[in-house]
Design a protein that fits this description.
The chain has 8 helices and 6 strands. The protein is α/β, with parallel strands linked by helices. It has a 6-stranded parallel beta sheet, sandwiched between helices. Helix 3 runs parallel beside helix 5. The protein is globular.
């Protein structure tokens, strides 16, 4: 079912555990606003020291080998962050297209999912927006689900690994 559709994967929080690491680093730098913080992160160090989530790179390589219509669709706050993500993925043998989304731009504006395309993302808001625009959003679960969203989550497909895409 999934292999017949275009599949878009988020990077931070789906491929690497970098999402939580960014939040932890920001907590250690409370005097910096987010813009200053993003401008001062050592992105290369962040991604090199982040952990892969549930063999996601292995799954992506297999899907790539199977000629699946697969893309990375990731928010970036700086050009350096975007370049570092691209370098990281290429270094690990990931050759699929990478679409970068600037802050405050919805992913559904970068790619209009009205063709039923799939988005796997750890952001509930991104999944809701994707679904509202004709796509099929799949929530990549982590431990940070807000309690007031839990009832709505019952209506959304949820996964903890990208391995479901191999079936």
């Amino acid at each position: 079912m999934y292999k017949e559709k275009k599949i878009f994967l988020d990077f931070d929080g789906v491929i690497l555990d970098s999402e939580q690491r960014i939040v932890d680093l920001k907590d250690k730098n409370p005097t910096l606003d987010w813009e200053e913080f993003f401008a001062n992160i050592d992105w290369k160090c962040l991604y090199e020291t982040s952990s892969e989530i549930n063999e996601s790179l292995k799954v992506i390589k297999e899907l790539q080998r199977q000629k699946t219509q697969l893309y990375i669709l990731s928010k970036v706050h700086t050009l350096l962050e975007g370049q570092t993500k691209i370098d990281f993925l290429r270094k690990h043998g990931i050759e699929i297209p990478i679409l970068l989304t600037p802050p405050h731009i919805k992913k559904s504006m970068v790619y209009l999912p009205n063709d039923g395309s799939i988005l796997v993302d750890d952001s509930y808001k991104n999944i809701v927006d994707w679904n509202q625009n004709g796509g099929h959003g799949i929530l990549f679960l982590n431990d940070d689900i807000l309690e007031d969203e839990e009832m709505e989550l019952m209506k959304i497909t949820k996964v903890k690994s990208l391995k479901f895409l191999l079936k």
